[in-house]
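Predict fold of L-lactate dehydrogenase; 362 aa.
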Amino acid sequence: MSKRYDAAELQQFASEMFQRAGLAAERAEVMAKVFLQADLLGFTTHGMNRVASNLGWLLDGESRKEGEPHLLTDRGNCFNWDADFLPGPWVLTLAIEQALQRVPEHGVVTATIRRSQHVACLAAYLPPIVEAGYVAILTCSTPAENTVSPQGSRDPLFSANPLAFAAPAGDYPLLFDISMSVTAGGYVARAQREGRKMPQPCLKDSEGNISDDPAAFKNGGSILPVGGADHGYKGAALSAMLEVLSMALGGYGRADTAAKDDDEANSVFLQIIDPQAFGSRADFLRQTVTLCDLWENSRSDSDSPVRVPGQRAWAARAQQLREGVELYPSIMEDLRPWAEKLGVPMPRPCDRTTAADKEGNS
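Predicted 3D structure, encoded as tokens:
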């Protein structure tokens, strides 16, 4: 039977650990909420899985516990901040709150952030935006990271460069969070930890050979861009575009010597769009609902139904809020030493079970 944890208790657990690590209660609560939201949506490598690394950064002084982001430019409908290593989930949430306040007046609000400590799962920031009726575009890149090789090169150049998007539709939003690499580094690390191969040859060793062995990546190799060995030029082009939006517009990135020592600090691009700046909300929803309906009801080429991006994540979020959050097994193992070190009691699994669990026991 799968262990599940009450969402509110998980959030409180993470918040208490962040407070013991030196964050003010309000900031700790924001951090915990973002990490929990990722697991609610099913993004298990960048949710509660990243609490441990963020605790380490706070205690080691790599994350700034106090202070505000430095304002670099502000034109009302766009602004640029230097986070100066403030915790990523907190500073990005702050930027989103600023943008949401401004978008009714400006219609479209765009923000960039440089030197934000790792922001984790981008999809975790989208629910409040799409629930407010807005469209969201969110991407980030990591100036100090070189993990993804361009098409035809054996040298890693880009970071994973995730892109998240959300738009209101019908019963669920059109929502996705995808990296510009065939797989994410978190999945490669998880496979190596568990002693298994990748599901497909999505890596390249230091000599340029395609591989499914996580060790190839860890020993100086790279991850293939979206499109893989045959069509990776598409992923490489998209990676370049996202680094322009996040690093170049933010004015800080690979051209700066200091950025090489920034570890996992992110450059962020955020855009929030009010559909009513362009026409009626009804006209907008008529298009998005029709698109999702056509997609969902198209003929499947297998025994599985056709799935629209956002459909499963939105359903998983609602189910896990009702029945408890099902965490990847290694997450609680990794958090236990931190809980003991910080003197925070571990949360107890709740009594709720999944429908699959019930069927298996019937």
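DSSP finds twelve helices and twelve strands in the chain.
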